[in-house]
Amino acid sequence: MRDWRQALRDFARWWREAFRSSGGLKVIFFKELGDHLTSTRMTIIFSLVAVACLSSLYVAGQNIRQAVNDETSAFVFLRLFTTSGGSLPAFIAFMSFLGPLLGLAMGFDAINGEYHKRTLSRLLAQPIYRDDVINGKFLAGIAVLSLMVSVLGLLVAGLGLAFFGVPPRGEELLRMIAYLVVTVIYIAFWLSLSLFFSLVFRQTATSALAGMAVWLFFAIFAPMLAGIIADGLFPVAQDSPADLVLRNAAWKQGLSRLSPTTLYDEATITLLNPGVRTLGPVLIHQLIGAIPGFLPLGQSLLLIWPHLVGLIAATMLVFAAAYYFFMRQEIRTN
Amino acid sequence: MGNGTAIIVTENLTKRYGPVTAVEGLNLEIYEGEIFGLLGPNGAGKTTTILMLLGLTEPTAGRALVAGLDATRQPLAVKRIVGYLPDNVGFYDDMTARENLFYTARLNRIPPEESARRIDAALEQVGLTQHGDRKVREFSRGMRQRLGIADVLVKDPRIIILDEPTLGIDPEGVRELLDLIARLSREKGKTILISSHLLHQIQQICNRVGIFVGGRLLAVGPLETLGRQVMSGKPLEIELQVEPQNGEVLSLLASLEGVEDVCRDGPYVRLRCAKGRDVRPQLAGLLAQRGITLLHLRARGYDLDDIYLEYFQGEGKP
Q1: Tens digits of per-residue pLDDT, B150-197?
Q2: Which residues constitute the domain of residue A145?
Q3: Are A299 and A279 a contacting pair, CB within 8 Å?
Q4: Which domains does chain B have, with CATH numbers?
Q5: How far is it, in rounded angstroms, from Cα B88 to Cα A304?
Q6: Residues in chain B closer than 8 A to A117 (CB atoms)
Q7: Looking at the predicted structure, is the pLDDT value of residue B231 above 80?
Q8: What is the mean pLDDT of residues A194-208?
Q9: Are A260 and A186 in contact (CB under 8 A)?
Q10: Distance between CA atoms of residues A18 and B76, nearest Å
């Protein structure tokens, strides 16, 4: 009986020791947060994104009257984010293109930078778990980018409110918040990718370039490549049967959805434009008898649910790979 | 100085990186309160051994016990009592010295008031008090090294492990550093493990040294016995300088019983004794008797210099 109790007590002690938080996560989180917020790099990138987004707001201001008059006057507030005009793209297009840069800039030297400063072995010799380091860096990055994305979104919303006098309605507000959340998830994907590269490559320049290469590939080349592959598999001519055309379109879309950028673009346009009712190809006979109207938020979310799941899964997959690499890596400074 | 209880024990500790064996079957005991010098050329496996002691690298075989704790299974408990100064230590350049130390203190869960006190004391001890609020970017190599020591002191560990602490510091800095290390051991009873390839620098303060070459520990012990241990079975060589130095003296020395060979080497005369013989007792008497002045006498082979030459420059092939 006594042995049994003793064993239980030993087990409890072991459990406490093994699963107790080392407290390192919190310390590293706040240190990284401070580093990000005070770094010159972050100021530059954030200024770039902010200028781009504000200029798109200006364009929206120029064109919103026309855009609203063309169709109905519903969801005017959301038009602030989606209206483009002249030479400048819309807010969401800027976010989709420059957002990854934010994530990449925050993570590309996260771990190999510590190697170069020769601080990693000193850091890991402190009584903290090894994963506290990578978790702390990742969470601090997410905190900073949540902050930035919210600031930008709210800035645009607030300025729109002040200059154009378009108050958001309840649903518009919810849609905007959903949009900001999706943006954070999207940029978190790029953050985890750059973290991964910072582990794989010992040179910070290499990991930065690798991150940029992936970014440009997904932003520019992936849609083209999807088109080429789809056309190669199912060549479509002017007089091709509808079946083939459909299959070509489905393949093109399916392939381009492998890119998180496409997922994000489709998700955000659905969120910010309630008029988007479907994302796939639509046949004319399917439209016959359909009543044009707006989707409620719930239905829009349902439409992009797979996109959200895909984005979160991609982020977690890449972070898991980075985590695994980090836990297995040898801590030699030379 | 050591009170006899082993605080660091390695049992058959082995680390292989693929086909390369970095550390091979290391059995080492370091006693509480002593200064132990791990001597070896670059690439001998010293840093790997240290990383295994801290649980930062997993041994391929064997285990390392620090204060009775298995470093691989309970790394956190080990790291709480061990302070480690890495080889060529680095700091966050855009933070001040004090901020860097404060970060370490927070990672060690030292309460803020206590850590402020400890940081002041540590900076004082390493002589960086005036530079505490400067950014580390502006620090010289030697100042960084001293800050590294302060970083260890803030933690106030039972065991201090210093990897190549004297590298890249000027001679005056080395002297101060060694003084500091000796004082820590003497006044606070810390156990200190120093790894170095510069034996001249650390031999003055080590109670015991281990010679580590090619992943193997060749010899361990206090400096005095180490020479005998390493050089046992080798003929003794005596180096002497006499006045006057001429052929007559040389032939006189050669005639001494037990001397195998005599040769001139610059200002010195070298005698090689027969195996197991030591002619030093007779030598002094003989020279005095003939009115020859003895200026210098040294037995080669019992000195760390010779051990160094024997092992380090011979790439570990005795």
Answers
A1: 999 999 999 999 998 888 788 888 888 899 899 989 988 899 999 988
A2: 22-281+292-328
A3: no
A4: 6-228 (3.40.50.300), 235-300 (3.30.70.100)
A5: 52
A6: 90-93
A7: no
A8: 93
A9: yes
A10: 9
* Domain assignment present for A15: no
Which residue(s) pair with B270 in the sheet? B239, B263
Phi, psi of B155 (to 5 degrees): -75, -20
Q: What is the mean pLDDT of residues B236-242?
A: 81
Report CB contact under 8 Å: B79, A126. Answer: yes
For A23, the closest of B74, B103, B109 (CB atoms) is B109
pLDDT at A334 > cutoff 50? no
A128 occurs within a structural domain: yes
In B24-70, which residue ranges form alpha helices assigned H by DSSP? 46-53
Please say whether the beta carbons of B109 and B100 come within 8 A.
no
Query: Over 90: is that where the pLDDT of B107 sits?
Result: yes
State which H helix or E strand residue B241 sits in. Answer: strand B237-243
Query: Is the confidence at residue A1, as pLDDT, over 90?
Result: no
The ipTM assigned to this model is: 0.82
Is A21's Cβ below 8 Å from some Cβ in B? no
Is A14 domain-assigned?
no
Structural domains of chain A, count: 1
- The torsion of the CA quartet A105, A111, A116, A121, rounded to 10 degrees, works out to 160
Q: Tell whether A333 is covered by a domain.
A: no
pLDDT, one tens digit per residue, over A54-100 is 888 888 877 777 766 665 667 778 888 888 777 788 888 888 888 89
Contact between A33 and A144 under an 8 Å Cβ cutoff? The reply is yes
